[in-house]
Write a structure and sequence with these properties.
Strand content: 5-15%
Order of helices and strands: HHHHHEEHEEHEHEEHHHHHEEEH
Shape: elongated
Structural class: alpha+beta
CATH superfamily of the largest domain: DD-peptidase/beta-lactamase superfamily
Number of strands: 10
CATH topology of the largest domain: Beta-lactamase
CATH architecture of the largest domain: 3-Layer(aba) Sandwich
Largest sheet: 5 strands, antiparallel
Distance between the termini: 31 Å
Length: about 475
C-alpha cells in the first residue's frame, strides 16, 4: 500500500538519527544510553502517575544496564542500509519459526496480532494480522505522543497564568492544561503574583479561576476512576488526593476547584487577602497578564506519560494537539486532531480510532502495523521532534511499567524498551529491541480476550525477548 511504503522509505535512514543521539548519551555513562536527561531528572523526583492496571514503583536508581554496550552499538550502526526487501521476502523463515509458537501461547487468548520491522530499512520481518485493528490499551499513548510532538514540537511548554482586571480588584487563575502542575510550581506562581500586586499597591483581591480552554465533558467514559482524574485545564498533581501516591490513586472530583483553593491559601500565606472562596469564571474584560509558570518541555511530558503510562498526561497531550490544530479541546476534538496529525505523517491509519488519548476507552483501535510504523518514524532523522517517543519507552527490568518484568536471566532485560498496554482481557507490548547482530527492531504484539494479565504479560515478554536472543 502507498501509505505503508512512504513510512518504510522514511525509516530507511533511521539509524543516522540514532547515531547522533549515541554521541550525546555515551558521555553520560552506560545507564544513560538511550535515556533522556529529562526522564532521569523526573525519575529522581517522581510525581505520582500510572495507567490502567499499572502499578508503578517508587523512585529507584537502577544499576547500569548490562545491555548498554549492545544498545550503543545499535545506536551507532552505519548509516548505509540495504534497500527494503519486497513483501514476498519480508518474513524470514527462522524468525517465523521462533515467533509463531510464542504467539500461540494460550495466555494471549484467541485473538493476537504481531508486527516486527527493521527500523533502519522499514523491512517487515514478521507479520501476523498486522493490519487488523485491535483494542490497544495504553500502547495508544505512542500515537498520542507522536501527534502532540508533531503538532507542537518537543520544546513546547504549557502555561498556567494569573491575569488581573483593569481595576486591580480581581485575579483570575487561568488553566492552560498542564496536568503536572505541582504545589511547588503553584507556590512560585503565588510568589510572582504577590510581587506584582505589591508593585501595584494592591493587598485585597477577589479570586476566580478559568477552565474554559477545554470543552465538552470532563468525565472519561469509564466514569470516576483512580486511573484518571476528570480532564480539566486546571489541576494540581494530576488530581490526586494523596500527592505521594503512585499508580492507581484516589482522585478529586473537582481538580480545578481544588487547585484554585490551594492557590488562594498560598496567596493568603503571603499576605494577600482574597476576601472569599474562589469561584469559577472568565477574566474580566480588559484583564492583563500578571504572572505565569510553565510546564516542563513537551518532550519531558511525553517521556513521563510513556514511562509510567500516565493517563492524565496522555489526555492532556491529546487536547494540546487539538488546540494546536484548531480543533476544540474535548474528547471528540482530540480524536479528530490526533487522526489528522498522524495522517499528515502518512501513517497507515486504516481502521484506527483514537477515542481518547490514554487507551482507557475500549473503542480505541490500532493495528500492530501502525504501532511499528510510528516507532520507525520516531527513529527517522527527518523527524527529530518525535525522538521522545523512543526515549520515553520503559526499559525492560529497569524502569517504569517494565520495572518489575523480565529479570536478570532474560535476554530482553535492558535491551527491550516498550510501552505496555493493560485492560481487563486486553494486553499489549510495543517498542524496540536490539537484535543480536546489532540491528534495531520495532515490534508490536497485541492480544485480545486474554485470560489474565498474569498469563498474558510473560507471554508478551517472551516474544520481545526472543527478538533479542
Amino acid at each position: 500500500m502507498p501509505e505503508v511504503r512512504t513510512w518504510q522509505l522514511a525509516a530507511g535512514a533511521a539509524v543516522v538519527g540514532l547515531a547522533l543521539a549515541a554521541g550525546a548519551v555515551a558521555a553520560a555513562g552506560p545507564w544513560d544510553s538511550g535515556q533522556r536527561k529529562a526522564e532521569r531528572e523526573w525519575a529522581a523526583a517522581q510525581s505520582p502517575s500510572g495507567g490502567a492496571h499499572h502499578q508503578v514503583p517508587g523512585p529507584k536508581r537502577p544499576a547500569p544496564a548490562p545491555s548498554a554496550p549492545g544498545v550503543l552499538t545499535a545506536l551507532g550502526a552505519p548509516a548505509t542500509a540495504p534497500a527494503p526487501a519486497p513483501a514476498s521476502a519480508s518474513v524470514p523463515g527462522d524468525l517465523a519459526e521462533v515467533l509463531a509458537p510464542l504467539l500461540g501461547d494460550p495466555g494471549l487468548g484467541p485473538v493476537r496480532t504481531a508486527s516486527v520491522v527493521e527500523v533502519a530499512t522499514g523491512r517487515r520481518l514478521y507479520e501476523h494480522g498486522a493490519a487488523d485493528p485491535m483494542t490497544p490499551a495504553s500502547t495508544i499513548k505512542i500515537a498520542t505522543s507522536a501527534a502532540a510532538l508533531s503538532a507542537l514540537g518537543p520544546d513546547h511548554r504549557i502555561p498556567t497564568t494569573v491575569v488581573v482586571s483593569k481595576d486591580g480588584e480581581e485575579l483570575t487563575l487561568v488553566g492552560g492544561g498542564d496536568p503536572t502542575l505541582g504545589r511547588a510550581a503553584l507556590g512560585t506562581l503565588a510568589d510572582r503574583t504577590v510581587r506584582a500586586l505589591r508593585d501595584r499597591g494592591t493587598g485585597t483581591v477577589r479570586l476566580t479561576y478559568d477552565t474554559s480552554l477545554y470543552s465538552g465533558t470532563s468525565r472519561h467514559p469509564i466514569g470516576p476512576n483512580g486511573n484518571l482524574a476528570p480532564v480539566s485545564a486546571l489541576m494540581v498533581g494530576q488530581g490526586r488526593i494523596n500527592q505521594t501516591a503512585t499508580g492507581y490513586a484516589t482522585r478529586t472530583g473537582d481538580p480545578a476547584g481544588d487547585a484554585a483553593r490551594t492557590f488562594e491559601r498560598l496567596l493568603s500565606e503571603r499576605g494577600v487577602d482574597t476576601s472569599a472562596t474562589p469561584s469559577p469564571g472568565r477574566p474580566a474584560a480588559g484583564s492583563k497578564p500578571l504572572a505565569k509558570v510553565l510546564s516542563a518541555p513537551l518532550s519531558a511530558l511525553v517521556e513521563q506519560a510513556l514511562t509510567n503510562s500516565d493517563n492524565d498526561i496522555a489526555e492532556a497531550l491529546a487536547r494540546q494537539t487539538a488546540l494546536a490544530t484548531g480543533e476544540e479541546a474535548s474528547f471528540r476534538g482530540a480524536e479528530r486532531a490526533v487522526t489528522k496529525q498522524l495522517a499528515k505523517l502518512k501513517l497507515p491509519l486504516t481502521g484506527a480510532r483514537f477515542a481518547d488519548g490514554s487507551g482507557l476507552n475500549r473503542a480505541d483501535k490500532l493495528s500492530a502495523g501502525l504501532l511499528t510504523a510510528l516507532l520507525a518514524l520516531a527513529a527517522d532523522p527527518a523527524h527529530p521532534e518525535l525522538r521522545p517517543v523512543l526515549t520515553g519507552l520503559p526499559v525492560a527490568g529497569f524502569s517504569g511499567t517494565l520495572h518489575g518484568r523480565y529479570g536478570g536471566t532474560s535476554p530482553g532485560t535492558g535491551l527491550v524498551r516498550a510501552k505496555t498496554g493493560t485492560l481487563t482481557g486486553v494486553n499489549a507490548l510495543a517498542g524496540t529491541v536490539v537484535a543480536p547482530d546489532g540491528r534495531l527492531l520495532a515490534f508490536a504484539f497485541l492480544a485480545g480476550n486474554t485470560p489474565s494479565a498474569t498469563a498474558a504479560e510473560p507471554a508478551l515478554d517472551r516474544l520481545a525477548a526472543a527478538l533479542a536472543s
